[in-house]
Design brief:
The radius of gyration is 32 Å and the shape is globular. The relative contact order is 0.11. Helix 17 packs antiparallel against helix 18. It is 56% helix and 9% strand. The chain is built from 26 helices and nine strands.
Length: 615
């Protein structure tokens, strides 16, 4: 037999002989009972009111402490903001929670971890149901090695929801056993897709340019083709990460001024290693009344954008370096006037590449329609640089052109079709830019390939919709035989034919779309123009083509989404959490991403500016 507290529902052992002292002692310590006694001598207790949010609507209700709800919100807080589990046991965390509500009951880190895993399983099932209603999903993937020397593969799904909003969700953040061969990568991706039940929905996959990824794509493509689930005829299945290509191109070009960059890098390193040197440098900056907003930055040699930031800041303070040399005879890396000129020239083209990369790396808006125009900017810059008389510029341009032609010498169909499906460009941008990007004897072939591929993809969507509607159409004609009769023309019909522009009845949506003029938004609206919103507004007019546009515009052209996950992975897998099991890491990374997407929470990260590491 046991006694039960009416306040906390805790069971207490019954003692023979009728002893009640231990019960009285429990009542004195019972936290819920203490809360009910607050204000007892001040008359009737007033109920607490709270606002409950249900499906976006706030409802006034009587507050009731719910221990389960508290633990659920605790899990979300720790996962979304990446707090370490040990924090839940901190004394002042408990004090803070009890100051909010005396009924709060502390939990152990192991309990919090178990709650996280339970919520991960629940959230995964909910996401599975949501993905079941999606027709096509694009993938991005990348690899990370943790400080435990464990290789992780991140797989991210990109798709358009029913509201025409671009969505992305991390599907897996799983360990990958070495060696990281193309076959191992393909097997891991296939296993993940089967687990999520989306193996028949994959339209494209975006990867960097490692040779192992080429093999992985070939294996995946063969698997999908064998099951007759290769969408778009496999024409655009493999998308090479354009940010990674730009990185390779720039790194090749920078080798031509390696000595200049090395001098500036060593100068910055020399100053930053000593607080007294840096103080002396900053005093000169103030005396010259230069801006102190741009501090000296030391680059990461494998990240060209950090090199660009270093050069930009150094150029802002180039007059300071020479004056500092007069005060410090140990300083040996002062760039010459010619070096500064070369650095300034390089900084100009890096600024263009930096702007292009920022556009490519967007995660909240479509990028496939912006691809061609940005690549044209890069090509135009290379063409202009190739006419420069300076030898170092010519050598640098030649190296970058070789890399450009290696990856973009053949027409990239995602780049081209994405541009055509932007109503501001249509085929006009193709006709304008291709003669300038490709050789004179070859550009027409690429233009024809784009038009043929456009027709091919459109017919695929038309075929699917026709199969769905065929039974409905036949039933309509069976019930209305009079519709099959040929309609006779009268005087009005003859007049219309002779005095109006007639749209042929067999004209396709793609012909109608391309025959219309390009859409010209206002100057202020041009940069913020959303192609998805345009297609959503015109979905009734272009019933089949709008579906195609939805899927094409959701294709990512960089692996930044997966790279962004590694930024979070680096924080989760810190030195204090090196003992986390891989399945726990996956739960924290994936669920953190899902919850942040659901609640619109954005964590600070520099990944958009970092782009891809050197391959």
């Amino acid at each position: 037999m046991k006694a039960r507290c009416n306040h906390c529902k805790h069971n207490l052992a019954y003692k023979k002989g009728g002893a009640t002292t231990y019960l009285k002692r429990h009542l004195k310590l019972c936290t819920p009972r203490k809360a009910t006694l607050v204000g007892k001598d001040k008359g009737p207790k007033q109920s607490l009111l709270s606002f409950d949010v249900t499906e976006g609507d706030e409802m006034l209700s009587i507050f009731k402490y719910d221990k389960g709800k508290v633990r659920e919100e605790l899990v979300k807080m720790f996962v979304v903001h990446e707090y370490p589990f040990r924090m839940v046991e901190h004394e002042f965390f408990t004090k803070f929670c009890r100051s909010l509500n005396p009924k709060y009951e502390p939990i152990k880190r192991q309990t919090l971890k178990l709650d996280c895993m339970k919520m991960y399983i629940s959230e995964k099932e909910s996401l599975k149901l949501a993905l079941a209603g999606i027709n096509k999903i694009s993938l991005t993937s990348d690899l990370l090695t943790s400080n435990q020397s464990i290789g992780y593969m991140c797989l991210t799904g990109h798709f358009m929801d029913s509201e025409w909003k671009l969505q992305k969700r991390i599907l897996n953040f799983c360990p990958l056993e070495p060696p990281h061969t193309g076959l191992a990568i393909a097997d891991s991706i296939s296993e993940c897709l089967i687990d999520w039940g989306i193996e028949d929905k994959i339209s494209t996959i975006t990867l960097d340019n490692a040779s192992s990824n080429d093999l992985a794509v070939r294996v995946l493509k063969e698997n999908f083709e064998a099951k007759e689930k290769l969408h778009f005829g496999g024409k655009i299945f493999h998308v090479r990460c354009c940010a990674h290509i730009l990185n390779l191109m720039v790194q090749d070009g920078l080798t031509e001024i390696r000595d200049v960059i090395e001098n500036i890098r060593e100068s910055v390193k020399y100053l930053k290693l000593s607080p007294s040197r840096l103080y002396k440098f900053n005093e000169i900056v103030k005396s010259l009344k230069l801006s102190t907003s741009k501090l000296l930055i030391l680059d990461v040699p494998t990240r060209w954008n950090s090199t660009y930031a270093m050069l930009e800041c150094a150029l802002e303070n180039k007059s300071v370096f020479s004056r500092y040399k007069e005060r410090d005879y140990n300083y040996k890396w002062l760039p010459s006037d010619e070096d500064w000129k070369r650095a300034a020239e390089v900084s100009k083209f890096l600024e263009v590449i930096n702007d292009v990369t920022k556009v490519f790396s967007g995660r909240k808006y479509p990028t496939s329609n912006l691809f061609l125009r940005q690549i044209w900017k890069v090509r135009k810059m290379l063409n202009d640089m190739s006419t420069d008389n300076r030898d170092f510029v010519k050598r640098m341009t030649l190296k970058m052109k070789e890399k450009f032609d290696k990856y973009w010498g053949e027409c990239n169909l995602v780049m081209a079709i994405g541009a055509v499906l932007d109503p501001r460009y249509k085929m006009k941008l193709i006709l304008y830019s291709f003669p300038k990007i490709y050789p004179a004897d070859d550009f027409q072939r690429h233009i024809d390939d784009v038009r043929e591929s456009l027709e091919f993809l459109y017919k695929e969507y038309l075929s699917v919709d026709s199969q769905i509607n065929s039974s409905m159409s036949s039933a309509t004609y069976d019930s209305n035989p009079s519709q099959a009769k040929k309609q006779k023309t009268d005087d009005f019909d003859e007049w219309v034919i002779n005095n109006s522009d007639i749209i042929p009845g067999n004209k396709s949506e793609i012909d109608m779309y391309l025959d219309e003029g390009v859409y010209k938004p206002g100057n202020e609206e041009y940069e913020d123009f959303d192609a998805l919103n345009w297609w959503k507004a015109n979905s009734l007019k272009f019933r089949h083509l709008s579906k195609m546009a939805r899927d094409i515009l959701s294709i990512p052209i960089t692996t930044v989404a997966s790279e962004f996950a590694f930024s979070a992975g680096g924080r989760v897998l810190d030195q204090y959490r090196s003992s986390l099991k891989p399945e726990t890491v996956q739960a924290l990374i994936c669920m953190g991403d899902w919850l942040r997407q659901d609640f619109g929470v954005e964590l600070a990260s520099n990944v958009e500016n970092e782009c891809m590491q050197e391959g």
